[in-house]
Specification:
By secondary structure, this protein is α/β, with parallel strands linked by helices. It folds into 2 domains: about 5-235, Spore Coat Polysaccharide Biosynthesis Protein SpsA, Chain A (Alpha-Beta Complex), CATH 3.90.550; about 250-430, HAD superfamily/HAD-like (Rossmann fold), CATH 3.40.50.1000. The chain is about 30% helix and about 20% strand. It contains 12 helices and 19 strands. It has helices spanning about 35-45, 60-70, 90-95, 120-125, 180-190, 195-200, 220-235, 275-285, 305-320, 355-365, 380-385, 420-430; strands at about 5-10, 30, 35, 50-55, 75-80, 105-110, 110-115, 130-140, 145-150, 155-160, 170-180, 205-210, 215, 250, 290-295, 330-335, 370-375, 390-395, 415. Helix 8 links the parallel strand 14 (about 250) and strand 15. Helix 3 packs across helix 5.
């Protein structure tokens, strides 16, 4: 089963002016991070990797953001540009084929700051037979919201936009999950707005899912100011500190996450090693970013193209997603070794050089002194130590050990494989 996401991010942010005069609302900074970052974190938690973002206001800035995220190769972000705003339902009409290879589409109004568990909502959606699930929250003033009434098994039996006399305080939170046929049905409606035009037509065949955690519209200056304060707590819950940095576990790819194949060039040969998805999920829940750093000299040797490497990485990510797991980014270095001394740094990015790790520190706000490097070669161990990681871990799940008597006298841990190292990393958090 595969889920995708549509992030509705094209709004002008009129109520949030003057902040949105020069920046799209979806990229306003909240505690040092663009708003879209928060949603990508939540989508990553649900192992969603294929994401469509609609654009209108300041589209070049959003395109630049999409390009930077796509360089990390852990998610695929695509743009649907709207020269004229199409409305929340109109974006679906403009992209009728987006659901073709998915069992569920999550549609998100991206102008909210939220801590919602999309993983839990997706699990609930897949547990019932109705084609549409709507996230609900308890509104303090129901007259200003779209209000749903629920009966047995959370069936939505009525929905009214901004009712004068509300029947409940359960409000539309702007997060929907539709199955493939429901998405196609919405696309065929050629409607403009979900609240007024679409949701009433699904009453009686949709469910409500109530989220009692944090969820806030940041559409006004007052709400935006409050969100700045709230975000500090949200980030701390995800492992970030007050400087918006978090620890990482840096991971070699071949022999650590997937079976070692000399100069791997065929996506069909990608096979996850045992226990990898569970280990990634466990570390990400504890606040670690999981970042792949991989030497790929096969490119310089002419044995693999960059596009071929991308397909291999996508296949690894696809297999991880099948088990509800993701990595946060993938970095790779195509350089050939310049000497036979595998302990020497002959290129800053090629392990044992620390360059890939240090790029991740800058781009992902990593706290390197609390981070770990894990790999099946001595170059992995040394790359972590050269970058300033708290420690490096050597695993025996790859090819034959390349550690010999000439190895530098450095301190590192040794485990059978990555899953065996995870309890040690977790215990180190409390030391």
């Amino acid at each position: 089963m595969t889920a995708k996401a549509l992030l509705l991010a094209a709004g002008r942010g009129t109520r949030l002016k003057p902040i949105t005069i020069d920046i799209p609302k979806c990229l306003v900074q909240i505690s040092g991070r663009p708003l879209l970052d928060y949603w990508l974190d939540l989508l990553g938690d649900a192992a969603i990797q294929d994401i469509l973002i609609n654009t209108h206001s300041h589209p070049d800035q959003v395109r630049s953001y999409i390009s930077e995220v796509n360089k990390r190769e852990a998610m695929v972000l695509r743009e649907s540009h709207e020269p004229e705003l199409l409305g929340s339902a109109g974006t679906v009409t403009a992209n009728p084929d987006f659901a073709d290879d998915a069992d569920a589409i999550i549609i998100i109004y991206a102008d909210n700051l939220s801590a919602v568990s999309l993983e839990a909502m997706l699990h609930y959606h897949r547990s019932h037979d109705d084609p549409f699930t709507m996230m609900l929250f308890h509104a303090s003033d129901p007259r200003t919201c779209g209000i749903a009434s629920l009966e047995k098994d959370n069936h939505i039996v009525s929905f009214v936009e901004k009712p004068e006399h509300p029947e409940s305080n359960l409000a539309n939170a702007g997060v929907y999950i539709l199955d493939r046929e429901a998405y196609r049905e919405v696309a065929a409606m050629e409607a403009f707005d979900f609240g007024y035009d679409v949701i009433p037509r699904f009453v009686g065949r949709m469910r409500g899912w109530v989220w009692d955690g944090y969820h806030r519209d940041i559409g006004t200056p007052q709400a935006y100011e409050q969100a700045q304060k709230d975000a500090i707590h949200l980030l701390q819950q995800r492992g970030y500190d007050l400087q918006c940095t978090r620890p990482a576990v840096f991971l070699d790819r071949d022999g650590t996450l997937i079976e070692h194949v000399d100069y791997l060039a065929d996506p069909a040969a990608v096979r996850l090693l045992p226990g990898i998805p569970e280990s990634l999920r466990k570390l990400r829940r504890l606040g670690f970013a999981c970042v792949v750093v991989s030497n790929q000299s096969a490119i310089a040797r002419g044995m693999l193209t960059e596009e071929g490497l991308y397909e291999i990485n996508r296949e690894m990510c696809r297999q991880l997603a099948e088990h509800d797991a993701v990595v946060d980014a993938i970095y790779w270095c195509p350089e050939l070794p310049k000497s036979k001394d595998r302990y020497a740094v002959d290129h800053p990015d090629r392990k044992p050089g620390p360059g890939m790790l240090l790029r991740a520190v800058r781009e992902l706000n990593i706290r390197i002194e609390d981070s770990w490097m894990i790999g099946d070669m001595i170059s992995d161990v040394l790359a972590g130590l050269n970058a300033g990681c708290r420690g490096s871990i050597y695993v025996e799940s790859g090819k034959k050990s390349d550690i010999d008597d000439s190895c530098p006298d450095v301190d590192f841990q040794r485990f059978v494989d990555f899953p065996s190292a995870v309890p040690f990393i977790i215990d180190s958090m409390h030391v």
